[in-house]
Design a protein that fits this description.
signal, 4-stranded antiparallel sheet
Length: 322
């Protein structure tokens, strides 16, 4: 069976397109157009099919190579990603180690800070400004508390009870006005009976003692609050600059009777300034509850500790309202 040259070319082009020959194959076919036209159609077809199979095999090999290359590439990528993750993990670990080191260094620095020196410098600065040379003639200290005359007029019975706690009437007249004035101006002392073995605390500057008849003490709960808030110690207790310190000793007094009487009041605010420069004022707000043990010198009623039971060593500067 003979076919025209046009039909042969059309048929061959269709087969070539289905077999996906390369551009080079098409060019070769077109270059040999005349020879193909003179050749038996079946031989041409066989030649084309044979070439298509060869091309397909070559393509399969290429695909296999691509698959292998893709697999190798994926493996390389996996290894690369693993390395990146490892580096990131190491970086995170190193960062955490660095943070831990910084924390430990901060803790170490906090522990090694010379708080005694810092607190001493802090208080010396205020003493120089408001209590020059620690001389009482150079300073004014005021307690903004309960007026004694008003108190005894409105509370005559309580006034007499408190006076009776002193050894002499002269001592009562001398000391009681200051004791009443140490309490907040809008409140009066409250009478309290304490049991045997009940303990009260007195905070004094380091190296001090409680040999004097000073009646100002703290209950256990008030004392525990001060220990938990050392930056507020001087402020809440209304301490004058003569009593502040970088460190404090703590003494105790124990009740020896079941019917011991004390009085409690809210500590009043205070202010202190140098007479020559009254515009620079050191203030305290007070606010804690003080236990007034007026008859604390009576050894049959009270037992004072002769040495400090504890020490308060604040690792912070005082927080003051000035």
């Amino acid at each position: 069976m003979k076919m025209t040259l046009t039909k042969i070319l059309f048929f061959c082009s269709t087969i070539l397109a289905l077999a996906m020959p390369s551009k080079a194959d098409v060019a070769l076919f077109e270059k040999s157009e005349k020879a193909i036209a003179k050749t038996n159609f079946l031989r041409v077809t066989e030649a084309i099919i044979s070439h298509a199979n060869i091309t397909k095999s070559a393509t399969a090999v290429t695909i296999d190579d691509d698959t292998n290359n893709s697999s190798k590439k994926a493996k390389r990528n996996y290894i690369g990603i693993s390395r990146v993750k490892a580096r990131k993990s190491n970086a995170i670990d190193n960062k955490q180690l660095k943070l831990n080191d910084n924390y430990l260094e901060a803790q170490k620095s906090s522990d090694t800070v010379n708080w005694v020196a810092q607190r001493t410098a802090f208080w010396n600065n205020w003493i120089d400004k408001c209590f020059p040379a620690k001389n009482w003639s150079n300073t004014t200290f005021q307690t903004i508390g309960r007026n004694y005359n008003d108190f005894k007029q409105t509370n005559p019975i309580l006034d007499n009870e408190m006076k009776a706690m002193y050894n002499t009437l002269a001592d009562a007249n001398n000391y009681l006005p200051g004791v009443i004035n140490s309490g907040a101006e809008n409140s009066d002392p409250v009478k309290v009976t304490v049991a045997k073995n009940e303990i009260f605390y007195k905070i004094v500057y380091k190296g001090g003692n409680i040999n004097s008849p000073s009646p100002y003490y703290l209950s256990e709960s008030e004392y525990n609050w001060i220990k938990a808030n050392p930056s507020q110690l001087e402020q809440k207790l209304g301490l004058p600059l003569s009593s502040v310190s970088a460190e404090y000793d703590v003494f105790t007094i124990k009740s020896l009777a079941d019917d011991n009487v004390i009085f409690q009041s809210i500590i009043a605010p205070t202010k202190q300034f140098a007479n020559a420069t009254p515009n620079t004022v050191y203030n305290t707000p007070g606010g804690k509850i003080q236990s007034l043990i007026i008859n604390n010198t009576k050894s049959d009623r009270w037992l004072k500790s002769s040495t400090p039971k504890e020490q308060i060593n604040p690792k912070c500067l005082p927080q003051i309202d000035n």
